[in-house]
Amino acid sequence: MRLQGTMQINNQGHLEIGGCDVVGLADTFGTPLMIIDEDLLRENCRRYYKAFTQDDGDGVLYASKAFLSTAVARIIHKEGIGLDVVSGGELTIALAAGFPPEKIFFHGNNKSANELRFALSCGVGRIVIDNHYELELLEQISAAEGYRPSVLLRLAPGVDAHSHAYICTGQIDSKFGFNIFGGGALNAVKRALESPHLDLKGLHCHIGSQIFDLGVFRCAALMMMDFLQEVRDHTGWTAPELDLGGGLGVYYTSGDTPPIIEEYAKTIKDAVLQKCREHNFPRPRLFVEPGRSIISPPGTTVYTLGSSKEIPGVRKYVAVDGGMTDNPRPALYQAEYEGIIANKAAAKPVEGVAITGRCCESGDMLIWDLAVPRIEPGDLLAISCTGAYNYSMSSNYNALARPAVVLVKDGKVDIIVKRETWGDLSRLHCIPEHLF
After folding, report:
1. Would you give the end-to-end CA distance of the chain in angstroms?
2. So what does this thing catalyse (predicted)?
3. 360 is an active site residue
4. Residues 6+ apart with CB under 8 A from 215
């Protein structure tokens, strides 16, 4: 496993993160346990801030769908970054953390009327309109309740992100956004500009996730700038803002070669400036919405090894005390991860095993081929780069409780999400009176 951030192997041969021995963390907080390296989280935020905001005044918004807690929201805010949310629940968590609502963009392809009213009453910075239904709904609510929100329109630019089909979002055949091709996007812009109850600030696109090809981001930026010029030709309106979403990929396994944050920033800025010169178009304020590339590398999940099953000539299965309930990505996207036996981190591998979860599904596999030293029940497996789309996509399947999340820095540890208990699992259940 590639060591990232503050990870190191200490004198006891144990994996250490943020100056904390992972074995000690597991003893104290139990497993499965998600560990967040605060220094690496802050470093990623600062690199984005420097690449986009520090000199050019562009905006960086953390995509909270990757992982959100009140503590993480506090860190994001302290590092000068805004937030994008996609539900009333995410907005509630952000506000509970004291996050300034004017630095929040509200996304989503099917916001309810109650969510829109909540966003309006909170005074979020932007509402990103995804479709004609939502445009009309927001206009009606704003007119009835006396609001004039600042909005962006989400577009589908028709760009293939060359990623897993389930995480590509900017192609023509997508549930998200107004299509540029076919006239839907231009009609939506005209409709929004005509409304006295909406203040159209700009346009937005997001082409997908876990993208390594910078050329795809460049293509999206060029297409969006061409469309801004088309809009100006048809309406006379010059968009002051352009939000290009997120999607920058990260390292999970040895075959991954993600670009660095600074290369990503230069690529899209250069593309925008090229089109500004070509069209004599004033440079819009740019926004980007990274999630995975900020929070995934700082996250590590620790499990305890349990049962095993060896099939001669086929493979050896080793089960852990978590699985697809806390990390559904391998089952959903065939995602791959690296791992290390945290209490034997300095030991040499002697065999290959398949790491399986404890859920009642054959597809509950975390790593199909992991080289390990001599292992036994009770050993600890640490899987790296699990900060994004693990806890945030977790479930209670098989009535398993969600893990705790801790933040580590300089040898200190703080719990930021408590472990669910078995009692929590029935807390919202009700038995009708006639069943007694």
Report:
1. 54
2. meso-2,6-diaminopimelate + H(+) = L-lysine + CO2
3. yes
4. none
Place of tokens 């640490």: 382
Q: Who's near 276: CB < 8 A, 6+ residues apart?
A: 225, 282, 283
To the question of whether residue 252 is assigned a binding role by annotation, the answer is no
CA atoms of 4 and 2, how far apart (whole Å):
6
Q: Label residue 170 by pLDDT band (50, 70, 90).
A: very low
The catalytically annotated residue of 122, 205, 219, 360 is 360
329 is in an annotated binding site: yes
What residues have CB less than 8 Å from 325, skipping those under 6 apart? 357, 359, 394, 395, 396, 397, 398, 400, 402
Position 431 scores a pLDDT of 97
Tokens for 436, please give them.
Answer: 């007694």
Collect all residues with Cβ–Cβ distance below 8 Å to 334 and sequence separation of at least 6. 164
pLDDT in tens, 296-333: 999 999 999 999 999 999 999 999 999 999 999 999 99
**Does residue 79 have a known ligand-binding role?**
no
Q: Sketch out the chain's domains with CATH numbers.
A: 8-30+298-425 (2.40.37.10), 38-295 (3.20.20.10)
Q: Is 292 annotated as a binding residue?
A: yes
**How far apart are alpha carbons 325 and 388 in whole angstroms?**
14
Q: Does the annotation place 289 within a ligand binding site?
A: yes
Question: Could you read off the pLDDT of 28-68 as tens digits, one per residue?
Answer: 999 999 999 999 999 999 999 999 999 889 999 999 999 99
Place of tokens 């990503």: 264
pLDDT higher than threshold 90 for residue 128: yes
Tokens of 93: 């968590």
Query: CA-to-CA distance for 195 and 143, rounded, in angstroms?
Result: 10
